[in-house]
Each structure stands twice: as structure tokens, then as C-alpha cells.
Design brief:
Layout: E1 3-7, H1 11-23, E2 28-32, H2 36-47, E3 57-60, E4 71-74, H3 90-104, E5 112-115, H4 120-130, E6 138-140, H5 144-158, E7 165-170, E8 178-186, E9 189-190, H6 199-220, H7 225-239, E10 244-251, E11 262-270, E12 273-277, H8 284-302
Parallel strand pairs: 1-2, 1-4, 2-3, 4-5, 5-6
Antiparallel strand pairs: 7-8, 8-9, 10-11, 11-12
Helix pairs in contact: 1-7, 3-4, 4-8, 5-6
């Protein structure tokens, strides 16, 4: 039985569970939360949708009772508030991640751990270290969502289905992220050759991507639908061993000459988590942006 545990059943965790149900990713979903009544309520509500989706057991449980899950999705921690950056969450949520991963480290075999809580890159690196630096088994949701936002906005600008647009936002899931424009294409045609290409206008598009979460939080206090959809796609790639390439947060481990941080690079994902990191040939400006992003994360890690 393919089983997923979600730790933290707030807006994001509960919506992730709903997205997983809709995609039929898993035969069982365990909901773990410090507020047991909240987890029970979410499990009840989700279970009532079962006649409309593929059969799945949904239950509330403790982290110890979730032992044996193939994938643990960590959504625990507080959310950003208006005026606060993702990195402002660092100390509070790092402490929670350490406690969770200390418990997961005792599992045998180790599950694949997918960190969603923010600041996701810092917390992914904290989780990886707390878990004993297991090869490939700790991931962060990273810039999968930011990349989806980029594809959506480019699709609107150029009149294309965003499914047909390829390319990445890389680096931090946060203010130092960057658009790797050299990776963007559609139908095998590089972005610079698209009709209506305008470099200045595209920078405005990227600004919309980078600030999207702040704009949403300002209006509705939290973001959860799109990130849940992104997490469900990552989870499906792992659970079904799909070997999908997605920009998730992983330890850099010296790639591109980067320091000891986790950030988003295009990765092949499968049953064991990370199968391989793809290293696209970035242009000099993009490589400098990647290193700047790593520097920001290195400083944040020192304070975590």
C-alpha cells in the first residue's frame, strides 16, 4: 500500500491532502498535527469526498503511528504575515523541523521527506542534516510553484498553453530567486525568438512571479491552492517513480561551486526521492544570480 503522511494540517497541509485525493496518488493518507482535533476534523471532511475520487484511507494519527509511510510531507509551522518575508520565519519553524526530523530519523527504512514549510530552502537543509544527510531522501518543494507561476504568466502574455512552456525559476524560493531565461522555450524555440519578445517586459513578468505570494497574502492572508497542486505533482513523481524533472530544493553539494546550502535546481524525482540533479548550462548573469541566492541562504542558515 502506497502511504503518505502529512505533518501539519493547517491551510496548506489540508489542501495538500485534498490535492492528493483528487490526483489519486496514494492508497492511504495519514494526517499528523499537534492539534489532534483539527487532524480528526480534516480527516472526517476529506473522507466524505471518497465516493467522488479513487478509494483512499484517510486517518488522523500520531507521527509514531505514521511510521512506515513512503513519503512524509512536512507542512508544520506558522505562516508568513503581511510585511514579513519567508526568511523571517526561520527560527520558529527550524525548531519545529528539528523535532519532527529527530523522530523520523529513528524510522527504518527512512522515508522520503518533502519539506513544504517556509523558509523551505533553509528548512530543507536543516531537515537533511537532522536526518543524518541521507542521500536523496530529503527534498523541499522549492521553486516548483514559482516555475508554475512563470509559465502561467508567460502563457498569458504570449497566448500559449502554459503546459507547452518549459523553463525554470531557480535558487531560493523567495526574494533572491531568479528566472533562468536561458532555459525557457516552447516547441523547441528559445524565448528570445518568440514573436513579441521584449526583455524589459519579461523582467516585469518575473517581478510578478517573485512578489506573487506577498500580493496573495495581503489579500487573503495565506496561499495554499497552487502550492498544494505543486506538492501533489512532486508527491506523485516520488510515489509512482515517474522520473519527472521538477525544480525542487536539494543540497547543492558543491554543484556550480555553491556553498553548503539547499536550493532549487532541476531534479529527476523517483521512488527513492532524488534520482539525479540536472545542471543546465546557465549564462554568466544567471550563474551569478544563483551564487547570490546561495549566499543569502547561507546567512539565513547560520541564524537557523
Amino acid at each position: 500500500m502506497r502511504r503518505i503522511a502529512i505533518v501539519g494540517t493547517g491551510f496548506v497541509g489540508a489542501t495538500v491532502a485534498y490535492a492528493l485525493l483528487q490526483r489519486g496518488v496514494s492508497e492511504a493518507i495519514d494526517l499528523v498535527d499537534a492539534d489532534a482535533e483539527r487532524a480528526l476534523g480534516e480527516a472526517m471532511d476529506l473522507s466524505h469526498a471518497l465516493p467522488f475520487v479513487k478509494n483512499c484511507r484517510v486517518r488522523p494519527c500520531s507521527l509514531d503511528e505514521a511510521r512506515g509511510a513512503d513519503l512524509v510531507i512536512v507542512c508544520a509551522g506558522r505562516n508568513s504575515v503581511p510585511g514579513e518575508t519567508r526568511l523571517d520565519l526561520c527560527r520558529d519553524n527550524a525548531a519545529r523541523i528539528r523535532l519532527i526530523c529527530a523522530a523520523l530519523r529513528a524510522w527504518s527504512p527512512l522515508p522520503v521527506v518533502l519539506v513544504v514549510s517556509n523558509p523551505v530552502d533553509v528548512l530543507t537543509h536543516v531537515a537533511w542534516k537532522e536526518m543524518g544527510r541521507p542521500e536523496g531522501r530529503v527534498l523541499g518543494s522549492g521553486t516548483t510553484l514559482d516555475t508554475a507561476r512563470l509559465k502561467t504568466l508567460l502563457g498569458e502574455r504570449f497566448g500559449m498553453d502554459p503546459h507547452s512552456i518549459h523553463g525554470y525559476i531557480l535558487g531560493e524560493h523567495g526574494d533572491s530567486e531568479f528566472a533562468a531565461w536561458s532555459t525557457v522555450s516552447a516547441g523547441g524555440v528559445a524565448l528570445a525568438r518568440w514573436p513579441g519578445y521584449d526583455a524589459a517586459a519579461l523582467e516585469a513578468v518575473f517581478t510578478q512571479v517573485r512578489t506573487a505570494a506577498y500580493e496573495i497574502i495581503k489579500r487573503k492572508r495565506a496561499t495554499y491552492y497552487a502550492v498544494a497542486a505543486a506538492v501533489a505533482v512532486i508527491a506523485e513523481a516520488v510515489i509512482r517513480d515517474q522520473r519527472t524533472v521538477l525544480p525542487v530544493s536539494v543540497p547543492a553539494e558543491g554543484r556550480y561551486g555553491l556553498p553548503d546550502v539547499s536550493l532549487s535546481l532541476p531534479c529527476v524525482l523517483g521512488r527513492q526521492g532524488l534520482v539525479r540533479v540536472m545542471e543546465p548550462e546557465l549564462d554568466p548573469a544567471e550563474l551569478a544570480a544563483l551564487r547570490r541566492s546561495a549566499s543569502v541562504l547561507e546567512k539565513a542558515l547560520a541564524a537557523a
